[in-house]
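Researcher: Structure for this, please.
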Amino acid sequence: MPKSTRPRSTRRASRGSTARGAIETITRPQQSWPVKLLLTVWRWRWELYVLAALAYIAIAHRTAITGYFQSNPLWLNALMLIALFPWVATDNPARRFVSNRIWCVITRHRLRACLIEMRTLNYSGNLPFIVACFSTKTGQVVWLWMRPGQSVEDLDNKAESLASACWARKATIARSKKNAAIVRIDIDRRDPLAKKTIASPLLQDTSGVPEAAVADDAVMAFLTPDTTDSVPDESTTQQPAKTGAGETRTRTSKTKTTAAVNDSQTVILGANGEDVSDYV
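Model: Predicted structure, token format:
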């Protein structure tokens, strides 16, 4: 019997199982070297700025810096470093700016890595273009420019994945009302309302007052229900008016007022002083 013409590796694979796994093919965009270089520089621009600044300081001012530290005694240099540490650790505009820029850079890189892992690509293999990343009071906001073949629907139900990739609390995805190609992603890292104590200028007069004193406040007493509506108040009682046949009635400022008459009858007055006893 003639031997099989199939390769040995194919025969071994067919013996193990007849099912074959799916093969995923990702198309890479065909870009020229200048375009790739510009995109790389744009993606790593802040890191390149920092390296360029450090290189400039090391080359241009290295002699002046080393000479300054060598001319001063050791205890003075240590005192300067100790005095500089609280300024770096405390909250100030310079530290806030540096921290915000670092988180913006981290968010851009993490977001791009998440888009790659989620295969948010068009048929040409292009990712959404990250236009900018700005710092907000609660985190960062990222603006995406969707390439042809992409839309905000490609990011549906992906908010939790984006938040997890960016190490944030949550992420909110919204499309621009004017242009469907512009997508905004809000990365929330902190909740400004999560503090236990919220400072308010409205509480300056009552913030230090005990709870017992606040309970006896005039406003609180005014808001409590009045249980003496049915009892006429002498302070609001006006002069008695004659009703005829020897009857007298008393007017008050209440909507419903009761008064005693000579023949032991009760007269109920309305808001305009009209006798409504027959209708009650």
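Researcher: Any notable elements?
Model: Confidence is low (pLDDT under 50) at residues 252-263. Residues 93-117 form the longest helix (25 residues).
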